[in-house]
Amino acid sequence: MASKTKAANAAAAIANGVASTMLTIPEFCHGAKISEGHFGLVRKAKLGPKEIRLGRAVRITVEAAAEWQVMFSQQSTQDAFNKFLQERKEQRELRKRQQGS
C-alpha cells in the first residue's frame, strides 16, 4: 500500500466526515490551498494564524484558521504581506551586490 502524505490523510479524513478541531501545518496548508513554503513566508511576516505548540508539535485550531482566512482576505493584510515580500527581495539583492563586490 502506498504511503500518503499528512495532507492527503487529512483530506481523506475530512472527505469521510471525520472532523478535527486542530490542524497540522500540512493540513492547514491543504485546506487553505497554499504551499508549506508560502505558509513559511506568511509566518515570517508575522501574518500567520494563531498556533498552539504542544512540545515540538504545532497545531492550528479550526477557529484560528477561519479567523486567519478573514484577516488575510483584507486588503491591508495583503498590502502588509506584499511589503514584506518586497523588503525581503531588496535585502536579498543587497546581499548579492555586497558579495559580488
Overview of this structure, please?
- The chain has 101 residues and is mainly alpha-helical.
- 63% of the residues lie in helices and 10% in strands.
- It contains five helices and three strands.
- It has helices at residues 6-15, 25-32, 36-44, 62-72, 75-100; strands at residues 22-23, 52-54, 57-61.
- Strands 1-3-2 form a three-stranded antiparallel sheet.
- Strand 2 and strand 3 (57-61) form a beta hairpin.
- Helix 1 crosses helix 2.
- The radius of gyration is 17 Å and the shape is elongated.
- The N and C termini lie far apart (54 Å).
- The mean pLDDT is 87.
Structure characteristics:
single chain; mainly alpha; three-stranded antiparallel beta sheet
Question: What is the average per-residue confidence, as pLDDT, rounded to a whole number?
Answer: 87
Distance between the termini: 54 Å
Proportion in β-strands: 5-15%
Task: Specify the biggest β-sheet.
Answer: 3 strands, antiparallel
Query: How much is the radius of gyration in Å?
Result: 17 Å
**Structural class of the helix and strand makeup?**
mainly alpha
* CA-based shape: elongated
Number of strands: 3
Name the strands of the widest sheet in spatial order.
1-3-2
Count of separate DSSP helical elements: 5
The low-confidence parts are none
Proportion of residues in helical segments: 55-70%
**Helix and strand sequence:** HEHHEEHH
